[in-house]
Amino acid sequence: MAKKRVLVVGGDGYCGWATALHLSTLGYDVAILDNLIRRHWDATHGIDTLTPIVPIERRIAAWQRKSGRTIELFIADVADYGALARAIEAYAPDTIVHFGEQRSAPFSMIDREHAVMTQTVNVTGTLNILFAMRDLAPEAHLVKLGTMGEYGTPNIDIEEGYIEIQHNGRRDVLPYPKQPGSFYHLSKVHDSDNISFACRIWGLRATDLNQGVVYGNSDETAGDPELLNRFDYDGLFGTVLNRFCVEAVVGYPLTVHGAGGQTRSFIDLRDTVACVELSIANPPDPGRLQVFNQFTEQFSVLELAERVHRVATRRGLTPTIEHRENPRVEREAHYYNAKNTSLLALGLQPHLLEDATIDAMLDLAERYRDRVDLAQIASHVQWAPGARARGASNLHAPAPIVPPDSTNLTPLRR
Ligand code: NAD
Ligand code: USQ
Predict the structure, then answer these.
(1) Which of 98, 286, 369, 405 sees the fewest Cβ atoms within 10 Å?
(2) Nearest ligand 2 atom, CA 243
(3) Domain map (residue ranges) of the chain
(4) Model pLDDT, residue 307
(5) How far apart are CA 269 and CA 221, in angstroms?
(6) Is the Cβ atom of 36 under 6 angstroms away from ligand 1?
(7) pTM for the model
(8) Residue bearing the CA closest to ligand 2, atom 35
(9) Coil, strand, or helix at residue 294?
(10) Is residue 107 over pLDDT 90?
(11) What homologous superfamily is domain 5-220+269-296 in, according to CATH?
């Protein structure tokens, strides 16, 4: 492999830290750019990761001692163009992997300020990276973390980024329709459109990774307390499977939102880091945005709760499953079938969700159970307060598609 320089934006976070170490292990030159805002948000919202994580400088020093490899660090906000441009000029990356966004759907739904902040910071950060690439690194490859939630839950199969459409006797391959479920997920849709446009007009190259919900931990961050990754279980940032494992260990009911038939795409963090490396190693041609769906399996929320319940019970725990009123406005029963063949074709060897994986997550939760603050677990953020009373329960089933009455359609004439 030719030596490649990778700038990992958001490299102090859950996916970013694991990816930075994985790429470093594989021989890439790695730099991290992060403004540490996630640690600040945790502090200001009174939440904390299950696992104690040390400051980024100590993490990097520990990695250098252990592996003999250096990781450069830029403390900078991608939304600050000057700081970003200085880092890109100084480091001259071949690839920019962009994880550095506000990534919580509930956080973005707290109120107007959090929605505006999420979209402003996320969209501005990605736009700044695109302009910096145009002016300072036009040959670089942007690997951008998007989300499967951009697609929503359509009543047809989900393709990888694009769909062939036949309309009035003509065909085209067009971006797949997006129906995101939060202001956070919407920020990713806006990013995708901006990246696509920048590729078209400036000849940049980019890969948009529509990633499913991530769970678990990666190999490089295990075993050394100073390399430990974050593991969120709280009601704002905790993702569903990580939450269920912590809940099972502390005797908190597994918090299934509503009926639990919501189906989502999932991926083990070990596969996240592998997918990012595969994307770096397989850039598209200049002018092209390639889109990969980055997940390995799909589960309903209730299925996941039942899996955790079974494995936890086998360990002698006594978990219960509780259907809670859903704080979100989302379908709780729907069709869901998403494609994910591109990364498999590039060589991804998935770690599927085995009982052993859940056991390892329960081990982690048991090791740090003294750090669990029960008050952080509840999901307080309501998508639409009072929504159920106003009829949001219609969202349980997709609305039937009624074909238009062709007799009422006026033909369009030029
Ligand atoms: P995280 O919150 O753990 O990490 C994000 C990191 O980015 C943090 O270290 C934060 O300080 C940094 N950051 C945020 N805004 C920044 C800014 N303006 N400038 C510089 N740094 C900034 O999140 P994560 O779980 O690691 O997610 C990383 C990316 O992957 C996000 O873009 C997220 O949308 C995407 N993603 C995550 C998941 C998941 O389940 N965790 C699933 C799909 C997609
Ligand atoms: N859910 C529960 N109980 C819980 C927590 C969540 O039933 O205690 C349900 C939610 O209602 C939702 C599903 O589980 O239906 C997933 O919720 P989540 O919080 O695990 O994931 P989500 O909000 O979609 O966001 C996470 C990451 C985000 C990423 C996204 C990928 O925080 O950064 O983009 O997963 S995806 O879901 O594919 O869009």
Answers:
(1) 405
(2) 8
(3) 5-220+269-296
(4) 98
(5) 11
(6) yes
(7) 0.94
(8) 213
(9) strand
(10) yes
(11) NAD(P)-binding Rossmann-like Domain (3.40.50.720)
